[in-house]
Amino acid sequence: xxxxxxxxxxxxxxxxxxxxxxxxxNGRSGQSISAVTRQRVLTxxxxxxxxxxxxxxxxxxxxSDLVLMLLPPEPxxxxxxxxxxxxxxxxxxxxxRLMAHRLPASGGAAELVRSLAPAALxxxxxxxxxxxxxxxxxxxxxxxxxxxxxxPLGPDLGIGALQVEHLAAAGHTxxxxxxxxxxxxxxxxxxxxxxxxxxxxRHGLLPPAVERIGxxxxxxxxxxxxxxxxPEPVTAACAFDDDYAFALLSGLAAHGLxxxxxxxxxxxxxxxxxxxxxxxxxxVSVHARMLGALFAQLAIAPLLGADADADVDSRRDASRPxxxxxxxxxxxxxxxxxxxxx
Length: 342
What we know:
The protein is an alpha/beta fold. Helix content is 45%, strand content 13%. It is built from 13 helices and ten strands. The chain has helices at 7-14, 18-25, 35-48, 54-61, 78-92, 109-116, 129-136, 159-169, 186-202, 217-229, 242-254, 288-304, 306-319; strands at residues 66-71, 97-102, 120-123, 142-144, 175-180, 209-213, 236-239, 264-266, 283-286, 334-337. The radius of gyration is 25 Å and the shape is elongated. Residues 5-61 form the HTH lacI-type domain.
């Protein structure tokens, strides 16, 4: 049975102290270690097959090398998956590891953080003020959407506002909104509907006609029927995302109708299939990878010093829409992708 390689073995092979091995392999900053010495330690560790003990490092630091991302209690859609993927790439640049956890509707964020002792925390879901206050007492570096936008509609990232702006500019005055009927989407449904209602009022439109549907052809057909056959027909619809926009297109076909002539339809997220819909789907593209990288960097910046702060600033600048005379929001912009459905 082979003896486990230790940091002492690496130090002896590299001709340095164990403290130097620890500084190099744990990525600790603030130490005057030359590039030559650093490379000698890395080469010795690789040759001996040495891997630092994660458990020991956690005990020594009082925290792990994990960055914990808390996700909303809803299915993992494409945009959120891209946020997660980009955040993972970002934290791994600094020798950390991302762990994602879907937070149940009942909460419990503080208890989870206490049990895992993460190095940093990313909230991809809004939390009540009391839960945020409890998290702050744990003194874990924290990045969350609410801290980046003063506007209470900010968590919608401007999706609903851009949908309404496009439809209003096309001359539509009576809009519908297709939202998921699943309780798992509750928080995003709430902010999306609030954003659409706010935008309708700003553009002088009637309040939108809201339909909560499943991803089901019969549900969508029934919603389209109510919209198009009522006393004040809806002429355009904002779908919660592209999946619900596809459902509306199916519902139109069930009535022998089509977009945009009978009902203009606009989606959100710009799925790869959006351009293959019949007709090709007009939608709102979310810069999800930029969002993931930005919030990962915000979370881990306190661990990394000045270089990370500069990286955060550059990502903020890159994410800001260049519109003269308006206050830039430090979140990634959304972009209208105009095709044929609206």
